[in-house]
Design brief:
79% of the residues lie in helices and 0% in strands. The longest helix has 31 residues, at 61-91. It is an all-alpha fold.
Length: 107
Amino acid sequence: MTPTTILVVAFVAISVFFTFVGAVGMLRLPDVYTRSHAATKADTLGAGFAILAVAVYFGTAGEVIRAAILFGFIYYTNPTAAHAITRAAYSQGIEPWTRDDSEGGSR
């Protein structure tokens, strides 16, 4: 394997890890606020590493510029969309989860 192939595989593996962490966060966390946080952070990193893998794999200037533009778009829109969703949830009166909300009381 060439060093470029190893680097691409490493970036894809990191991307899969962060995307998996985001998916687990969406399933395991209790409310819209914490789920939004998990999805935003992990998926932005996951998409970023996937785009970085694409830029390294193709390597030409045009593809690297397109990948950088795409990463910039995802980097700014993903957290902004999550903020809009959580703000809408807050304005609708959805209360954040607290430890008192869990079954069995506090630990």
